[in-house]
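Hello,

Our lab assistant flagged a job as stuck in the queue for most of the afternoon. It eventually completed. Since we weren't sure the result was trustworthy after the delay, we are filing this so someone can double-check. Below is the sequence as submitted and the structure that was eventually returned. Let us know if re-running is recommended.
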Amino acid sequence: MKMMKKAASVALASALVVSLAACGSNGGDGNSNSGSTGSDTFMIGGIGPTTGDNAIYGTAVKNGIQLAVDEINEAGGINGYQISYKFEDDQSDSEKSVNAYNTLKDWGMQMLVGTVTSTPCVAVVEETHVDNMFQFTPSATSVESVQYDNAFRMCFSDPSQGTVSADYIADNGLATKIGVIYDSSSTYSTGIYQNFAAEADVKGLEIVSAEAFTSDSNSDFNVQLQKAKDAGAELVFLPIYYQEASLILAQADRMGYAPKWFGVDGMDGILNLDGFDASLAEGVMFLTPFTPTADDEATQTFVANYEAEFGDTPIQFAADAYDCLYVIKAAAEKAGITPDMSVSDICDAMKTAMTEITVDGLTGKQITWGEDGEPSKEPTVVVIHDGAYTVM
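-- returned structure --
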């Protein structure tokens, strides 16, 4: 491996999982180890889009998991057992995601990290619930993604993102007149918008324009932008993914409209979008649990190792996924599980352990989980400045 993961990575592994944590796992390229029986190896699968429109997210998650698996395995495994890891592409499609789940079950999967996006995750959690398999999504934000007791998440939920965004805008006096452009065909976008609107009302923010688009009309935003401009929106809230956001920023620039912009975690990745003029994103603010320019030792070690291994700077989805593996490690060691246990017994033990651990990770400090599968951690807002993220 080309990772710089010897002493530095082992130190990072120890620092990341604070309470009740330990080390453990076995490697792979994300699509190997299919010959393992699982009797002496923990079989962990991952699902997300590595092709298609959301490939940047799934690829980041796949790589973040791989980096953690390699480090944990090198450090001695979980309860002395290695991890075998396999990742399946679902193209952010529900049917393909369920098919990927069944493929991983045939492979011998005992725990699932995924899925990456919300709609497929809602479909897959129905399957893991029936099988009583432990599921831990790094990035699916819809409430329904963790609606059963076998499922947990690393990221904030849609309601949390909407509420926190409104609070931040109001508490920091960023604007009083708000425009919103959201995707009414996306559970992710509509969920965030609905909770943003409710909290904005509580906080005294006036939503002067709220305009929707759908997946069938996501290339021309001139009408939505003109309505926000005519209504006097000082700030436009974008609870959407970076692809549409990049078009909105470019079209707003052409019409001479320059409000403040505030997004959510789906904005992460905009600076890596091929053909996008990064200067258009100058001053854009968004919620994210991770920024690669943070100067703490854990972040800098992770970024250096990730860049050395994959030739790219990690985005928050990679950090969320990386944290997922160390959380699994902490919970598995708290629960004392072994690979020869049944999928259902592993899940039952993990459900309890997840509510008993406290973890320091890349995406938050002193993170805990409730029985509802939701994490408790502090939000972070960044602003894009000179082509990089700066914590506000």
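-- support follow-up --
The delay was a queue issue, not a problem with the job. The result is valid. Residues 323 and 361 are 6 Å apart (CA to CA). The chain has a mean pLDDT of 90.
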